[in-house]
Design a protein that fits this description.
The protein folds into two domains: about 240 residues, Alpha-Beta Barrel (TIM Barrel); about 70 residues, no CATH class. The chain is globular, with a radius of gyration of 20 Å. β1, α1 and β2 form a beta-alpha-beta unit. The termini are far apart. With about 325 residues, the protein is an alpha/beta fold. It has an eight-stranded parallel β-barrel with strand order 1-2-4-5-6-7-8-9, surrounded by six helices. α7 runs parallel beside α8. Flavin mononucleotide binds next to α10. The site of flavin mononucleotide has 21 residues, from α10.
């Protein structure tokens, strides 16, 4: 079924948008830019605490940052106090005009759920709905969306009921990560439940969990009836996944092997440059060592990847990366 959402024009006839999942400390403005250049359609900031925004915390406001080329762009906030969620949402919309405001009902981290926020609200749905109502009223000009897990645990799966109520409250799309809070990131995402949510509401449902290649993406679209897919961990080592899925959806080859070594290096270097651009001034450093955890996942699948990782660990600057790339590519031709 094609669902339209007048204020979310990236859904609609013939459209199957691919979202980059929000991932704290990973999907900052730099990584998002890389994924945008690789075909991600819609992006969401990492989750940002509403109270931190209201305290005018500089780090929190840095996380709201996005560029015009990254649109359509959502800002995701979390919290469990309706009034402060509403005020934070309004501040964000007034300052940066996101294409949508997203509410986090999925984070399983202890420090978040102990405040009843994130997936903690799935145990306490009256409060969750109060948060939604307050935010909805506060930002009439901006579409409101939500991202949630299936429920607190397997004995209390609430995703279908919650999605139905969110639709009634005027939420315009909902992302469902097919795991419970209790599961964390273990086990498999349950796409049967995601399909049940998609069948129960008329607003677009974005399915999320364990999409790692084009074949799986096509199956998920066809079997679950979702309107969009959200891709998280796979994109960290494989930002090409968005273009690969799109190729597969058009019947073209899109396996990871089609991403050659030169392209992989180009993306690593691009990410290093974008990351420096985004953070160097604030951090007062121009070395690339601190961003190794972003670059290393992208070496997986490169011939001789272990050696490449060792080499990367010795790179201090972007120039060192360029030299490492040249030596590597030259080595391939000899
Ligand atoms: C390191 C990390 C950070 C995450 N941070 C957020 C976040 O800030 N907001 C959110 O809604 N989900 C967050 N998630 C969950 C992801 O958005 C996504 O729902 C989850 O990883 C499942 O999708 P995947 O199987 O494609 O990775 C995070 C996941 C990871 C691994």
């Amino acid at each position: 079924m094609t669902r339209t959402a007048p204020r979310l024009p990236w859904f609609g006839p013939g459209r199957r948008p691919l979202y980059l999942a929000p991932m704290a400390k990973r999907t900052d403005v730099a990584f998002r830019q890389l994924c945008k250049e690789q075909g991600a359609d819609v992006m969401v900031t990492e989750f940002i605490q509403s109270e931190a925004l209201l305290r005018d915390n500089a780090k929190a406001w840095d996380m709201v940052d996005f560029t015009e080329t990254q649109r359509p762009m959502g800002v995701q906030i979390f919290g469990a106090t309706p009034a402060s969620m509403a005020r934070a949402a309004r501040e964000v919309c007034d300052r940066v005009f996101p294409d949508f405001l997203d509410l986090n009902f999925g984070c399983p981290a202890h420090k978040v759920i102990e405040q009843n926020a994130g997936s903690g609200l799935l145990r306490c749905t009256p409060l969750l709905f109060d948060v939604v109502k307050a935010v909805k009223d506060a930002i009439p000009g901006t579409p409101l969306t939500a991202k949630m897990r299936l429920g607190w645990d397997h004995a209390s799966i609430v995703a279908v009921d919650v999605a139905g109520r969110l639709e009634e409250l005027g939420v315009e799309a909902v992302t469902v990560h097919g795991r419970t809070r209790e599961q964390g990131y273990s086990g498999d995402a349950d796409w049967g439940w995601i399909a049940q949510v998609a069948a129960a509401v008329k607003i677009p449902v974005i399915g999320n969990g364990d999409v790692r290649d084009g074949g799986t993406a096509i199956r998920r679209f066809d079997e679950s009836g979702v309107s969009g897919l959200m891709i998280g961990r796979a994109a960290l080592g494989d930002p090409w996944i968005f273009a690969r899925i799109k190729a597969a959806m058009q019947g073209r080859p899109g396996d990871l092997a089609s991403v050659g070594p030169a392209e992989r290096w180009a993306c690593m270097i691009r990410l290093a440059e974008l990351t420096l651009e985004a953070h160097a001034a604030r951090l007062g450093r121009r070395d690339v060592r601190w961003m190794l955890d972003r670059l290393l996942p992208m070496t997986q699948g490169l011939p001789g990847s272990r050696k490449v990782r060792d080499r990367l660990r010795h790179c201090l600057t972007v120039d060192d990366l360029l030299r490492a790339r040249d030596e590597y590519l030259l080595g391939l031709t000899h």
